[in-house]
Amino acid sequence: METAKAILETRGLSRSFSGFVAVNDVNFSVRERTIHALIGPNGAGKSTLFNLLTRFLPATAGQIYYDGTDITHASPASLARQGLVRSFQISSVFPHLSVLENVRIALQSRHGETMDFWLSDRRLRKYDEEVMSLLADIGLENYAQRIAIELPYGRKRALELATTLAMNPRVILLDEPMAGMGQEDIQRTSALIQKVAQGRTVLMVEHNLSVVADISDTITVLRRGEIIAEGTYDIVSADPEVRQAYIGGAHD
Ligand SMILES: Nc1ncnc2c1ncn2[C@@H]1O[C@H](COP(=O)(O)OP(=O)(O)OP(=O)(O)O)[C@@H](O)[C@H]1O
Fold this sequence. Notes:
Layout: E1 6-17, E2 20-31, E3 35-39, H1 46-53, E4 61-66, E5 69-70, H2 76-81, E6 84-86, H3 99-110, H4 121-137, H5 153-165, E7 171-175, H6 183-196, E8 201-205, H7 209-215, E9 218-223, E10 226-231, H8 233-237, H9 240-247
Parallel strand pairs: 3-8, 3-9, 6-7, 7-8
Antiparallel strand pairs: 1-2, 1-4, 4-5, 9-10
Helix pairs in contact: 3-4, 3-5, 5-6
Adenosine-5'-triphosphate binds at residues 17, 20, 22, 40, 42-48.
């Protein structure tokens, strides 16, 4: 595990907003096939770094590399095609379509087909087999015919993950996957993330530290736009600067 190569890397990455430096000269590296969490107190720059990595925000300075290729100026759509997929990105859920239809649309889009009403039944059925196997992976097979909007909250998030997986990602970026979830959904989603991480890389911003402790291989702690610690949960949680950042509270 320790020797896995870096799949995502930044060098001197910075982002300012009207002179305020939200991400400051960050050298960051995510090893392939690990679950990597980005944590830090409110306003630390987590969302900004996440948006830079997925190219939703342009960098003010520095470089981003994906699998050794400079992607500093790539578009989010081209990154998704190359396997760097932000959950809820291209694959947003259509609330009034069924679970099966939602995942089928994501698969069609990956195969370069738009929503073609004239697709033959045979071709649709071909997708449906793939859809059902994906839904089985994610524990949604019994929800296939349910309309997305009617799903319980945790299952809706699982559907979002299913549409992300339909893009066949190498790296999945999750923005607060546990947000708004109760304990039961948190446990199920944690297990799901560990499952989908097999053979893939997951980078997530997550506030729930017990989830982070449970499932992350590596944790990067940000504070005021800079990395202050990195390593396993045991290492970062014992770090005096990290403890101070959390005790110090929000915008310390
Ligand atoms: N579009 C923007 N314009 C101006 N300032 C911004 C913008 N986006 C972020 N910031 C500032 O950059 C800093 C970092 O914000 P960011 O949202 O990245 O932090 P965060 O660690 O994700 O916080 P939280 O945990 O509260 O979501 C904050 O001080 C924020 O006010």
